[in-house]
Amino acid sequence: MESKRAKVKLNQWVRLHDYNIAQKVQVIVEHFKHNVMGLLGGQAKAMVVTSSRKEAVRYKQGFDKYIVEKGYQNIHALVAFSGEVEFTDKDPNSESLIGEKFTENNMNPLLKGRDLRKAFDSDDYQVMIVANKFQTGFDQPKLCAMYVDKKLGGVECVQTLSRLNRTYLGKVETGTFVLDFFNDPDDILKAFQPYYQTAELADVSDPNLIFDLSEKLRAAGIFTGHEVEQFCAAFFVKAKVMRRLPTFASLR
Fold first, then answer.
1. Within a domain: 208
2. What are the helix (H) ranges across the chain?
3. Which residues contact 74 (CB under 8 A, 6 or more apart)?
4. What phi, psi does 146 have (nearest 5°)?
5. Which residues are bridge partners to 146 per DSSP?
6. What whole-number distance in Å separates Cα of residue 203 and Cα of residue 160?
7. Would 238 be classed as within a structural domain?
8. Long-range CB contacts (< 8 A, 24+ apart) of 119-124?
9. C-alpha dist (Å) from residue 116 to 36, 167, 199
């Protein structure tokens, strides 16, 4: 077999193996229970980012099994992915799953017809497991932790981790947390660097447009001068900035 193809197959086999998923689920659940769950007055949420729909299904199964075994009745996971997922005899530990079709509806029995966003915002679910879905364009201000098991880079990396940036009462004091099983911290920093320190314009812009926009925003009441001063005080004081940045840990 061609070596590159063989490595891909072996990697898929390892990532979908029950033992591999079970070990990561244990780390995620225990960390969430002891470090995240009590934040925001007990309303804190977490997201688990997987690299495929099959992984999302396996994570959900592993999550449900683990919390039942531990008797954690106050922790429940919601899984989000598109379409149907089917396993074959080429997937590891899949004998009991072959022929069964997995969907969001049959894997989230407590949904009761609700939209996933509204269900996750309720007290019924504390963790959302995703496969591409809801990594971007999803606002959940109570999201305090993210567990990443997927290669992230460029704009996708920034958009995914930025789900944690939504403001909520008490979130500034508690901070946010990222636990990464896959990526190197330097790669994450590299992905954010262009957006944090560099701003470029393709063509020369009329500086008066900036002042015109500023006046329009002020007239609309979008912000006040006092709020701008508060932002500058927080942004340019190093100690305060560091407290607001998400804690990042890598298990590579």
1. no
2. 3-15, 18-31, 39-42, 53-70, 104-107, 116-121, 154-161, 171-174, 185-197, 207-220, 225-236, 238-244
3. 37, 126
4. -135, 130
5. 47, 178
6. 29
7. no
8. 119/78, 120/45, 120/78, 123/43, 124/76
9. 21, 20, 36
First to last CA, the chain: 28
User: For 141-177, how does the pLDDT look when each residue is reduced to its tens digit (9 = 90+)?
Assistant: 999 999 999 998 888 888 889 889 888 888 888 889 9
For residue range 196-225, what is the model confidence (pLDDT) as tens digits?
Answer: 766 565 665 666 777 777 778 778 777 777
**Residue 242 and residue 235: Cα distance in Å, rounded?**
9
**Cα–Cα dist 133/129, whole Å:** 9
Please indicate, yes or no, if residue 80 is contained in any of the structural domains: yes
Residue type, position 125, single letter: Y
Q: How many domains does the chain have?
A: 1
Q: pLDDT tens digits, residue range 107-136? A: 998 888 888 999 999 999 999 999 988 877
Q: Which strands sit side by side in the sheet containing 77-80, from one edge to the other? A: 77-80, 127-131, 45-50, 143-149, 177-180, 247-250
Work out whether the CA dihedral 75, 80, 86, 90 comes out positive or negative: negative
List the domain range (segments joined by +) for residue 116: 16-200+244-250
Is residue 124 situated within a structural domain? yes
Which CATH number do you get for residue 92? 3.40.50.300
Cβ neighbours for 23, distance < 8 A, ≥ 6 positions apart: none
CA distance linking residue 129 with residue 102, whole number of Å: 14
User: At residue 244, does pLDDT exceed 50?
Assistant: no
CA distances (Å), 23 to each of 5, 17, 84, 102, 200, in order? 26, 10, 26, 23, 44
Tell if the pTM clears 0.90, that is, is over it. Answer: no
